[in-house]
Amino acid sequence: MAATRHFLTLLDFSPEELDTMIARAIEMKREHRAGADQRRFPGQVLGMIFAKSSTRTRVSFEAGMAQLGGHAMFLSPNDTQLGRGEPIEDSARVISSMVDIVMIRTFGHDVVETFAAHSSVPVINALTDDYHPCQLLADMQTYVEHRGSIAGKVVTWVGDGNNMAQSYINAARQFDFELRIACPEGYEPSAHLLEANRDRVSIVRDPLAAARDANLVVTDVWASMGQEAEQKARETAFSGYQVNGELMSHAASDALYMHCLPAHRGEEISAELMDAADTVIWDEAENRLHAQKALMETLLLANR
Fold it and tell me: Which residues bind L-ornithine (predicted)?
């Protein structure tokens, strides 16, 4: 039997496979809206392991698995031996012997890597401190739906060099676009990632310069989960790094802006943009459901 495939970062699939998955997500969205029966995986079970709280990730995976005809099981550290110190390797062996696919939302990226290495079923990274590849699938789906292929385009990231910024670096490589990262000094993404992708990724300190003629502008909260104590210091460091009408006026005339949510209006994004009638942010959020269904379908079929 072929080795079990996992989705821990965007680099786990080829650019061609990712394009196919995005097209499938768009198709599945159309099917779902038309009321089609998508229950192709009756009796399949998704184990959902959460060490970090969540709204969109839990709802989209749980609803998605139900729509595919399967069942989703929510596991928090309070409910499992993982929270009481059972080795990840042991948990992976046991859980994967009883379910068909696993998604993990946790802190250290090494946790999902260790779990996947000892799992007999596909493992999905539903967010770690280093990467958030599922959100990138939804973002890329949203861009394709509204503007077509993102290949050759310019994307500007405004804000912290966090797990989303690092996933955008991987996306620049896999989807073939130029990425400009506007962040204050000391808040850059991984130096190793930047170096490995320096042919298409650059740091531009001035957010207005970074946004010039961009086709897509993306941001996220200034303080991620676990960084609440840094909120005040970050507010000071990131003042001037807000995505607002002034910044978007420097982007291409048909540029889109995105935010993975939850958003802090008046901090990283203006209320004016967040609540604009023509924003694609709500499409972007909904597309988590469709992109992840396409992902789960791909992995479940690959593991048959």
Answer: 163, 220, 224-225
Confirm or deny that 261 is annotated as ligand binding.
yes
Q: Is 183 annotated as a binding residue?
A: no
pLDDT digits (tens, 9 = 90+) for 172-196: 999 999 999 999 999 999 999 999 9
Active-site residue numbers?
A: 105, 132, 135, 220, 260, 288
Q: Is 291 within 8 Å of 134 (Cβ atoms)?
A: yes
Q: In this structure, are residues 220 and 241 in contact, taking their beta carbons and an 8 Å threshold?
A: no
Whether the Cβ atoms of residue 89 and residue 111 lie closer than 8 Å to each other: no
Determine the average pLDDT of the residues in 193-207.
Answer: 98
Q: What is the mean pLDDT of the chain?
A: 96
- Rounded (5°) CA angle 2-7-176: 110
How many whole angstroms separate alpha carbon 29 and alpha carbon 285?
13
3-state secondary structure of 158: strand
Identify the architecture of domain 10-132+288-303 in CATH: 3-Layer(aba) Sandwich (3.40)
**What is the distance between the alpha carbons of residues 147 and 156, in angstroms, rounded to a whole number?**
16
220 is in an annotated binding site: yes
**Rounded-to-5 percentages of helix, strand, coil across the chain:** 45, 15, 40
Instruction: List the domain boundaries for the chain.
Output: 10-132+288-303, 135-284
* Record: fold of 135-284: Rossmann fold (3.40.50)
Among candidate residues 224, 275, 289, the one with its CA nearest the CA of residue 245: 275
Which element (helix H / strand E) includes 289?
Answer: helix 281-302
Start-end of H helices in 81-178: 88-96, 109-117, 133-147, 163-175
163 is in an annotated binding site: yes
Can you tell me the distance from the alpha carbon of 293 to that of 202, in angstroms, rounded to the nearest whole number?
A: 33
Distance (Å, whole) CA 142 – CA 199: 25
